[in-house]
Design a protein that fits this description.
Elements (H helix, E strand, L loop, with lengths): L2 E4 L3 E7 L14 E7 L1 H11 L4 E8 L3 H9 L3 E8 L5 E7 L5 E6 L8 H7 L8 E4 L6 H11 L2 E4 L18 E5 H8 L4 H11 L4 E5 L5 E4 L7 E3 L12 H14 L4 H15 L12 H24 L1
Parallel strand pairs: 1-4, 1-8, 2-6, 4-5, 8-9, 9-10, 10-11
Antiparallel strand pairs: 2-3, 6-7, 11-12, 12-13
Helix pairs in contact: 1-7, 5-6, 7-8, 8-9
Length: 313
């Protein structure tokens, strides 16, 4: 089974700051680092590190060749990525504060210059049963959803960033939504976390819904089922949360694609995301399978120890 990730590729400029810049303020950053980025790139690396066969499609400018080297080194096939001469690669200016939270300013560049010919060409090698992973950082996402649906692929959408372009997508053709509480509120029109996933089910009855809730964990509701699967969040000291959502998405999809039950796939995705926030940067923070397994073994051992201590006392 193959996974096509038709998504964004970019260059991240990460500035470490005491607090996010306020209107009219000039703030001296403590540090600046440059990383590979873009939600598409991050999710492809997470998919590959989780053991999936993943093909990245999309576009870069001539300044983004090093992004392809990074993808290749992680095991991602980049034959479907086009290099455009007339525009630059996507840039993200990311502020990371002392608590590890971030805010992002995005320039779309080549990610907003995709053509219908690129879309048609990318889908030629895929078939029914393959997976299609999409985000909302590229143009023509509507055509990608339709193409994947027509092929019989499982269409998975991470509707990030949530903006007016989402309303122009054929969301009724999506097979799975993976979204955080802000995106969930925007699509469900409720801020009630307990109600949100069921409101999303009412709006998208044929789709599986995966809702991530930060420190409150995550919830998975399969199409046609009434009982959600709940996954706790693992407590770690956050350094940079930039790639947490993308890491979760990649590991979850990879797990489901290789036949893991939703509960097991959610557990590994949550562990991978927890590891990623303890490291700086986006793509460099994504762990491999061995690291995730070791993390879960340690968490399991600590849980057994805690339970035995409670029984002893």
């Amino acid at each position: 089974m193959k996974i096509l990730n038709f998504g964004s590729l970019g260059i991240d400029y990460v500035f470490s700051v005491e607090h996010f810049v306020r209107p009219g303020e000039t703030l001296l950053a403590k540090e600046r680092q440059i990383y590979c980025g873009g939600k598409g790139l991050n999710q492809s690396i997470a998919l590959a590190k989780a053991g999936a066969m993943v093909f990245q499609a999309g576009a870069i400018g001539s300044d983004g060749e090093f992004l392809l080297d990074t993808l290749r080194s992680c095991g991602v096939n980049v034959d479907l990525v086009r290099c455009l001469e007339e525009v630059g690669t996507q840039n993200a200016l990311i502020q990371v504060n002392g608590e590890g939270q971030n805010c992002i300013l995005l320039y779309g560049g080549a990610n907003q210059a995709l053509t219908q010919e690129m879309v048609d060409s990318a889908f030629a090698g895929f078939e029914k049963g393959d997976y299609l992973v999409l985000q909302n950082e590229v143009n023509l996402a509507d055509q990608m959803i339709r193409a994947g649906h027509q092929k019989g692929m499982r269409v998975i959408l991470n509707p990030s960033p949530l903006n007016e372009a989402i309303d122009r997508l054929p969301l009724e053709l999506v097979d799975m939504f993976i979204l955080n509480e802000v995106e969930g509120e925007g699509l469900s029109h409720t801020a009630d976390k307990e109600r949100m996933i069921f409101a999303l089910r009412e709006r998208f009855p044929r789709a599986a819904i995966v809702l991530t809730l930060g420190g409150d964990g995550s919830v998975y509701l399969e199409a046609g089922q009434s009982e959600p699967v709940y996954q706790r969040a693992y407590r770690v000291k956050a350094v940079d949360t930039t790639a947490a959502g993308d890491t979760f998405t990649g590991y979850l999809v990879a797990g489901l694609a290789r036949g893991l039950a939703p509960a097991a796939a959610m557990e590994r995705a949550s562990a991978a995301a927890a590891i990623s926030v303890t490291r700086k940067g986006a793509a460099p923070s994504i762990p491999n399978e061995e690291e995730v397994s070791a993390f879960l073994q340690r968490i399991g051992a600590e849980t057994i120890h805690d339970e035995s201590q409670e029984k002893f006392h």
